[in-house]
Design brief:
homodimer; elongated; DNA-binding
Chain lengths: 187, 187
DNA sequence: CGGTTGATGTCACTTGGTGTCATGATCGTA
DNA sequence: TACGATCATGACACCAAGTGACATCAACCG
């Protein structure tokens, strides 16, 4: 018999998602999350740096996906095409988890602190993509601008995807947003 | 003789800037800021919603500037041109306060919580610009994409402006970044 | 079998942030 | 002039986030 139940981190994430969803982020204490998971507040903070971070544990994997895909694009691809390929891959990944992604996004949308955290995660993602573009030979400021533009496209499309009534696939919304960006920036 | 010294808010802002700059944001307590300004912690929180907000009090004025300028652009201007005009006006405004803007930005760059707050302020700014574009007849998602792209250009140029050794005017950096964005998004 | 490791608990503490009431100067008005 | 309302601030108690230090105890290892 194991001394502790397995997957403490997962239990904490699950409990946080449930409680944030039921009562809202602000009306949930860390002690309550921990108790729900059969643990203590102190243990929560051993797994997550703060009360927000428990919702963003997957963001490093997303960053790795983006970097891999940008690096894997054919050498002949322009920077924006490489980013577009990464967006496509990310879209396919989210399409698999649509339900839980939408739930999580709803929680984030309801709280400003969580939105702040989301924004800095996206900024970090853009930074990683920019670095991947530089490895492909892109120069600054083109690299950072392309990366930021790509993440913006992703964000705009993602927002439409989660709260739309009409169920369009994320990939399609991304392509549309990207085309729209090209249109509005055409001199 | 007045019972209280005038401009409590300004004194708090000044004290915060000084202390954040000297010891860093994390090593400064709100009680210390308040004491420095001859006030109490409780009064600090009457003027500013939290410890971060004291650095961002001017952001509403910036938002208003952007909205005004976007609205004032000639009707014939494209959405991106209207945003470009607003960026120009904002640049002129910052060029007047270069020294203090750089000091403030250095403080923000040194702390993650402050970066988060900065990002949500910029997101709010982008939202306001998008709304101003809609009032000019732009449709979504063009409005939001144009606004976000414009703010991204501003952010990238601003970062280069504050920590550059070579003193190029902000307006010029913004124009260059905008041209670069147009170049990387050209199909 | 005894020592070490590693995940967890316990406890005390600092700090950000808030609710509530007290204080006392200032201002309008009779 | 006097008096009551208003308003900025202080005082105080409190909660929750987050951290450091140390204890506990099953599992593992030689």
């Amino acid at each position: 018999m194991a001394r502790w139940q397995p997957d403490a981190r997962g239990r904490l994430q699950q409990a946080a998602l449930t409680l944030y969803g039921e009562r809202g982020y602000e009306n949930t204490t860390v002690a309550e999350i921990a108790e729900h998971a059969g643990l203590t507040k102190r243990t929560f903070f051993r797994y997550f740096a703060d009360k927000r971070e428990v919702l963003f544990f997957g963001s490093q994997a997303l960053e790795e996906l983006f970097v891999t895909e940008v690096g894997a694009a054919p050498e002949s691809a322009t920077p924006l095409d490489a980013v577009a390929a990464a967006l496509d891959a990310a879209a396919a990944m989210f399409e698999q988890r649509r339900e839980s992604a939408a739930r999580r996004q709803q929680i984030i949308a309801a709280n400003r602190e969580l939105q702040e955290r989301e924004l800095i995660k996206l900024a970090s993602l853009a930074g990683a993509v920019a670095q991947a573009l530089r490895l492909r030979g892109a120069e600054d400021p083109a690299a950072i601008l392309t990366a930021e533009a790509g993440i913006t496209v992703f964000r705009v499309a993602f927002e439409r995807w989660v709260d739309q009534a009409n169920r369009q696939p994320l990939q399609r919304l991304i392509r549309e947003s990207l085309d729209e960006l090209r249109a509005v920036t055409a001199a």
